[in-house]
């Protein structure tokens, strides 16, 4: 239950990403700076935390052992996640991006066969290939149905081109984020805490952000003062607070693909938080009755997903220990 609560709090802070990115785009800011500045600003905050906990040297030791793996999977988990998210903000409103992002619920479940989970048997713990949690996946489709209902009326007002450019990059990000996160959990093997892992992945993804920033200087020029400030807010709320909360939640269920999928399902709450944020900050239209029905489906689907995922694990452990 603790992992679910942490996941919901992470969703609250993640929601600021979609709202602030849309605000920056409406003000004329480039998606290049919205994405790269966030990770540049994250480093000093994370360094203070990790150095203050005297955990920086162990992090460097782990990164030196497999530098190539760190750079590649951190670029996947952070670079191919956030750059597409910011790119899509130029073509679709924040609520639609937040809604589309919930595909990560299904994406995370579909990635299960590519990883191994720890199973306790009479002969001791063994590693077995993960299986797609089909019952939990069915609950994920209920969540997505609710999201579709919420955005049905607004999506009809977008052109097909904007709809595609606003959705396809987010679909790519929905696979990249859980893939990079899970691979880094395997590489770290529980030897690093969540602060170390987030800092390590941020540092390891710097080559990607530096190249993107150079491209930005050449094509669109330097960022404005307002965009720099807003990117800093995203770095603190989403990059530091939300990421640490989410990684802490996934660490609590590391090795259990079913519970991991349940934690990732909590991110559906981002839609509700993003909607509330847009109502307050961007003066968006108040949701219709159809949208409220969708919200109920999202909430109910999330709770059912969590219940079924945990229910499947308990009997499995009892049989293994018998």
From TrEMBL:
Q: Which domain of life is it from?
A: Bacteria
Keywords linked to the UniProt accession: Membrane, Transmembrane, Transmembrane helix
Where, by residue number, does the polypeptide cross the bilayer? 5-24, 30-50, 70-92, 98-120, 132-152, 158-177, 198-218, 230-249, 261-283, 289-308
Q: What protein does this entry describe? A: Drug/metabolite transporter (DMT)-like permease
